[in-house]
Amino acid sequence: MNLSINPFRKSTKAANNTDTVPVVDPSWGSLSQTPPGSPGRSLQQIAEERQKKGQTHPPTSSNSWKNRKPGLTYASSTTALILENRPPHLPAKNPEEQQKHVLEYQEMIRGAKKKEVRDHKKQLKELEVRLRHEDGVQMHLQTWQDEILPNWETMKNNKKARDLWWQGIPPSVRGRVWMLAIGNELNITPELFEIFLLRARDRIKYISDLDSDGESEEAQAGSLEDSVDVIKLDIARTFPNLCIFQKGGPYYDYLHSVLGAYACYRPDVGYVQGMSFIAAVFLLYLSPPQAFHCFANLLNKSCQLAFFRLDQQVMHAYFATYEEYFQENMPRLYEHFQEQKLTPDIYIIDWMYTLYIKSMPLDVACVILDVFFRDGEEFLFRTALGILRHYEEVLLQLDFIQIAQFLSKLPSQLSSEDLFQSIEEIDMHNQKRFKEVLAGHLAQALTTNS
C-alpha cells in the first residue's frame, strides 16, 4: 500500500492548517480525496451548511439511521466520525472542541501510518527469514538425497545427519525418512492393511445393521473393534481448517481407512480420540498403506501404548519422571505450578495423545515429530519442558485456568527455531539418564501397588 495516500483522511492538502477541512464530493469514492481546486472550508461553515440540509447526524451505514435520515452519505471510516457534528437533539460542538477533535483525528492518522510502516517492516523480515529457510531446505535436500538416504544405516547416526535432522527434514523426503526412522517391528505389509481395512468395513456395516434392528448396546460391546463406528465423528474435528480431511475432501476416506484398519488390527486398543491427528499427518506425506505401517508401529512403542491403553501405573511413572526434570530445570516455574495445583496430567495427556500436533502450528509439530522418531520418548518430554521454558515468564503470571488454556493451544507465532533453542537449554542428562529415572519410578509404582 502506498503510505502517502491515507484512506481515512478528509484531505491531503493544507496539512498545517488545522482549523479547516475539505468538502468531499461523494462521487470521489472511498478514498475521499479532494477534487483538484476544491477550496477548504472552516468547520463552522460546514456545520452551518449541514444544518441547513438537515444532515446534522454523522453519516453511517446503520440501517436504522438510513431509514430515519434518507439521503445521508456514508462516513469514509469510523475514525473520521470524530470530525462530524452531533445529532440535532444534542448541544453543538464549540470551536475549541472542534479544534481538539481535529488534532485528535490527525494524531490517530499518524498512529495508523506508524503501525502500517511497522507491519510492513515485520512482513519483510518474515519474508526474508522464510526465503532464507527455503534456501537452506533446498541445500539440505541434496544432502539427504545424495548422501544420507542411499547410505541410511551408516549415515543415520552420523553427526552431519543428526545436525540436519535437528533443523527439520525437507518435506519432499520426510515420508521416506519417517518410515526408516520408525522401522517395522510389526512386519506390517500393504496386504495386511487391506485385510484389516476390509474387516473394518464389515464391522461398520455390522454395527449399522444392529442399530437399524434396535439391538442393545450389550450386543455390540464384544470388543474395542466397535470403536470404528465413532471414528467418523472424530475426523470432523481433525484439522477443521484443512478441508482435505473433512467429509467430501480427498483425504477423508484415507483417514477413515487407516484409523478403521488400526482399530481392527489392535482390538485391545481400538480407536482413541486424538489418534486422528497423528494418522492425518502421516497421510500428508505417505500413502494409506505406508501411513498405516508407520501408525501401527509408532503406537506399539511403550509410551504410546501406556497412554492409549490408559495404563495408570506406567503413566504415573512417566509423570513422576517428567516432574523430576521439571523441578531441576525450572524450579521457579515448578513451584508456581505446585501452588496452582497444576499437575502434569492436566496438559501432558493431550500432548501425548496428539504428539503436539493439535496444540501448536503444524509446521512446528512436524519438526518435533522428525526428532521424536529419531530420539524416542525422551524427546517428547524434553519438548514439553522446552515449551515451558520458552513461555516461562508468561506462565508465571497466569493462574490455573489460564495456564491450562494457554498450554492447550500455543500461540500461532511459535517458530521451530525459537522452540528448539529452548529445548536445547533443557538438561536431561545431568545425573541420570531418562530411561534410568523412568525405570526407578516404574519399579516404585509396581512396589506401591503390589
Explain what the structure shows.
It comes from Stichopus japonicus. The chain has 450 residues and is mainly alpha-helical. It contains 21 helices and two strands. A two-stranded antiparallel sheet has the order 1-2. The longest helix has 54 residues.
Characterize this entry briefly.
The protein is mainly α. The chain is 61% helix and 1% strand.
What's the topology here?
Blueprint: E1 20-22, E2 40-42, H1 43-53, H2 63-68, H3 95-148, H4 152-155, H5 159-166, H6 171-182, H7 190-213, H8 228-235, H9 252-265, H10 275-285, H11 288-298, H12 302-308, H13 312-329, H14 331-339, H15 345-354, H16 362-375, H17 377-390, H18 392-395, H19 400-408, H20 416-424, H21 434-449
Antiparallel strand pairs: 1-2
What class do helices, strands and sheet pairing give? Answer: mainly alpha
Name of the CATH class of the largest domain: Mainly Alpha
How would you write the strand order of the largest sheet?
Answer: 1-2
What's the overall average pLDDT, rounded?
A: 80
Taken together, the total number of domains comes to 3
Q: How is the CATH topology of the largest domain named?
A: Cyclin A, domain 1
Secondary-structure arrangement, i.e. CATH architecture of the largest domain: Orthogonal Bundle
Fraction of helical residues: 55-70%
- Quaternary status: single chain
Number of helices: 21
Strand content: under 5%
> Could you name the ranges where pLDDT drops below 50 across 5 or more consecutive residues?
1-39, 55-76, 216-222
Which of globular, elongated, flat, extended, rod-shaped describes the shape?
globular
What is the number of beta strands? 2
| Cα gyration radius (Å) | 31 Å
Distance, first to last CA: 71 Å
Order of helices and strands: EEHHHHHHHHHHHHHHHHHHHHH
| Corresponding CATH superfamily of the largest domain | Ypt/Rab-GAP domain of gyp1p, domain 3
Largest sheet: 2 strands, antiparallel
Organism: Stichopus japonicus
Biased composition (Polar residues): 29-45
Region (Disordered): 1-71
InterPro entries: Rab-GAP-TBC_dom, Rab-GAP_TBC_sf, Rab_GAP_TBC_domain
